[in-house]
Design brief:
alpha+beta; 6-stranded antiparallel β-sheet; 3-stranded antiparallel β-sheet; 4 helices; globular
Length: about 190
């Protein structure tokens, strides 16, 4: 059987680029599947990663936060700012691992909870239980649900009701408010 050169070229290109275009994980289709994902989040944590206790609050003075965080992260986490859409490399992060708060290291999401919303911000359809507290935000005149790290109170983003089933939620997170820890521990 003769294979067309364009088909062969396309196949070779896909094989060569395969590691960069890995298929997305299968998203749970039921709330029971979401619960299992939430319960098993530690399976994506790199070996030896220290996990802060969300019940132990991290409270620092503004000057201490400024020393600890990059200016853009400080603006989002401590001043409830928003980074420009499309600027975070974490929006395109596809490796297995865990997303933690850039302020205090509390695990918030796993790579399995992430989806491409097309908004330009890292988006997730669920979160690690106990990771967030919420409040209502009226900054753009209509109410939105804002979520903050349960440990340090850092602002991460807003949750919307336009995410994929079965949760229907989209946790739209500022990338500068996150750090990604790959499962293999290689940054």
């Amino acid at each position: 059987m003769k294979v067309k050169s364009t088909t062969r070229r396309a196949l070779l290109t896909l094989l060569a680029l395969g590691p960069f275009f890995t298929p997305a994980h299968a998203q749970p289709k039921t709330m029971k599947g979401i619960k299992e994902m939430q319960d098993n989040w530690k399976s994506l944590l790199a070996p030896g990663t220290a996990i802060p206790d969300p019940a132990e609050p991290l409270k620092l003075a503004k000057d201490e936060w400024r020393k600890r965080l990059q200016p853009a992260a400080y603006d989002v986490l401590r001043e409830e700012g928003t980074e420009r859409a499309g600027t975070s490399p974490l929006d395109r992060e596809k490796r297995p691992g865990v997303f933690v708060c850039a302020g205090c290291g509390l695990p918030l999401f796993t790579s399995e909870m992430k989806f491409d919303s097309g908004t330009g911000w890292p988006s997730f359809f669920t979160f690690i239980p106990g990771a967030f507290q919420t409040k209502t935000d009226f900054k753009i005149l209509y109410p939105r649900t804002e979520y903050h790290c349960a440990r340090c109170g850092g602002h991460h983003g807003h949750v919307f009701d336009d995410g994929p089933a079965p949760t229907g939620k989209r946790y739209c997170n500022n990338g500068v408010a996150l750090k990604f820890i790959p499962k293999d521990g290689k940054a």
